[in-house]
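Illustration: tRNA-Thr(GGU) m(6)t(6)A37 methyltransferase TsaA.
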Amino acid sequence: MSNLAVHSIGKICSNENGTFIEVDKNYIPALQALDGFSHINVLWWFSEYDDERSRSVLQTEQPYKGAPEIMGIFATRSPIRPNPIALTATEIIQIDFEKGIIQVTFIDANDKTPVLDIKPYTPSLDRVENPDVPAWCSQWPKSTEESGCFNWEKIFNF
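Result:
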């Protein structure tokens, strides 16, 4: 097994002015040529769930209404997982290349959450034309745009 080392490249900043990714100063050069992409994939760390107990959970009781009674953690979007890594596709509003700040429309991460990486969203690699999902989640929104105004409270069992 290789020696893994993961380092934050910045953090999420959510406030009354919006949602931002603040890139650490030494990573600002990595933003070059990101302009022109409408969306990015953000890999971030579920830092509030980085403990031995959370990392040891492999199954959970029905987190979604209508889902199987017991689900493997890899079949969920739960923050409780062996490696608390999250992925969110989000739209870029603007980029301040000098300050290293990317304003985005939405990210399901809390303020001060560590960001691990940013990748441009490219349809040739990130879009699936006709994905299949289990029947219990087939009525969920079909896009991030639709998800923004969807009542997720009616879906979750917590």
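Reading the tokens back as a structure: The CA atoms of residues 73 and 153 lie 20 Å apart.
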